[in-house]
């Protein structure tokens, strides 16, 4: 009996567009790559497949915990590093009207 090896992706999920803080961005997620192509169901017109692993998403508090889980279960995995945080300087509306400003104010 041959055992197929599932390929998993470990990554930090991005924050939503409605989120400005850093809450819930420190967790790591393990997701499985699809093992078969999705196909159109002729009766309903919906796309689907027999791959139930594609529906599974496991959250971990650390990257090491996610990697340990994958190794313990014999999964091949690839790790995607989180994007570097951009340093954004907060802007103050009053700077538009500051005396002695070097550039012109245009609106």
From TrEMBL:
It holds the Pfam family NDUS4. Keywords: Electron transport, Membrane, Respiratory chain, Transit peptide, Transport. InterPro entries: NADH_UbQ_FeS_4_mit-like, NDUFS4-like_sf. Coiled coil: none annotated. Its main location: membrane. It is found in: Membrane. It comes from the Bacteria. The keyword Electron transport applies. PANTHER family: NADH DEHYDROGENASE [UBIQUINONE] IRON-SULFUR PROTEIN 4, MITOCHONDRIAL (PTHR12219:SF8), NADH-UBIQUINONE OXIDOREDUCTASE (PTHR12219). This is ETC complex I subunit. It comes from Teichococcus aerophilus.
